[in-house]
Amino acid sequence: MRDEFFQPVSGFDLPRFAGVPTFMRLPHVPLEDERIGEVDIGIIGAPWDGGTTNRPGPRHGPRQLRDYSTMIRAQNGASWVRPFELVNCADLGDVGPNPADVMDSLERFTRYYTKVQQAGIVPLTAGGDHLCSLPILRGLAANGSLGMIHFDSHTDLFHSYFDGCMYTHGTPFRRAVEEELIDPERVVQIGIRGTAYDSEDRDFAESVGIRIIAIEEFFARGIEDVMAEAREIVGEGKTYVSYDIDFVDPAFAPGTGTPEVGGPNSFQALQVVRELDGVNIVGADLVEVSPPFDQAGGTAWLGVSIMFELLCVMANNIAKRR
Fold it and tell me: Is 191 in a helix, a strand, or coil?
């Protein structure tokens, strides 16, 4: 019998524009709460963009994503999954950064996600810029390196920016490989495109065994074929899913700092997540939503729709493993 405490507030009981917004209208259960041990999937805000190198704003992403997520209902319209009945989900609140200190913020995030991992909670994070993924991986990979399925228009595998700056939203997965947080032979990056400074990031990927599926290959082969390969690459081992909203074409998601034309549409953005069914996901994120560049909110609405698709796959997989 389901626990009513962990059910989202229905729009039939309280209008969706009313009340204090939480992710998907779920109960707010911070890590210090006595019921934290009952949470299976925790949705977390990471309001930080200290790694941004061009257009800022993702620090405001989690607040807008929370607000727009009040439109999410209980059942997936394609898979018919009802995630809130399969597992206990809750909004854990935000992990607090230090906006004046990148290294301190990384340490704060790492400590937080270490506690999440120790509590046995699978985190679904709303960023924030893509540097947020690094401390999340540090917290989750305490017991061994993870595989990763990464949707993005950029590899985020660069060594450094400017005069040796090692920690930006363009470097998190280079650091993650160096720190053995992810196993490069179990990493696939999908949707990569756009102009480039050089080939340093792709050369590094090739040297360590990371599979890059550029957007041209993605469209030539089709979603089902590409995602079948992605599932094969990560296998049955523990896997992290990182989804940068700029994977999507800016015609559908303009509210991001580094848009690249020629990407998937909004329907395809959901399709790729549905193809993750069966992957052993131990954590996921949706990053780089920047409200100042899309004040109408269409990018945020797509973002929370992607998060709901992730939640459905994660909840279904947890339920199947029980």
Answer: strand
Domain boundaries, the chain: 4-321
Summarize the confidence of residues 86-99 as an average pLDDT. Answer: 97
Backbone phi, then psi, for 177, in 5-degree steps?
-70, -45
What is the rounded CA–CA span in Å between residue 242 and residue 285? 5
Q: What is the pTM of this model?
A: 0.97
- CATH of the domain spanning 4-321: 3.40.800.10
- Answer whether 261's CB lies under 8 Å from 295's CB: no
Position 3 scores a pLDDT of 81
DSSP line for 124-158 = EEEESSGGGHHHHHHHHTTTS-EEEEEE-SS----
DSSP symbol at 28: B
Structure tokens at 192: 């990569």
pLDDT digits (tens, 9 = 90+) for 255-310: 999 999 999 999 999 999 999 999 999 999 999 999 999 989 999 999 999 999 99
Q: Which residue is listed with tokens 């490069």? A: 184
Q: Is the pLDDT of residue 172 over 80?
A: yes
Which strand ranges, in their side-by-side order, compose the sheet holding 239-244?
89-94, 41-46, 122-127, 281-287, 239-244, 146-151, 182-192, 211-214
**228 backbone dihedrals φ, ψ, rounded to 5°:** -65, -40
Instruction: Establish whether the linkage from the previous residue to 128 is cis, with ω within 30° of 0.
Output: yes
Long-range residue pairs from 208-211, CB within 8 A, at least 24 positions apart, any chain: 208/177, 208/184, 209/184, 209/185, 210/157, 210/177, 210/184, 210/185, 211/187
Backbone φ and ψ of 122, nearest 5°: -90, 115
Coil, strand, or helix at residue 85?
A: helix
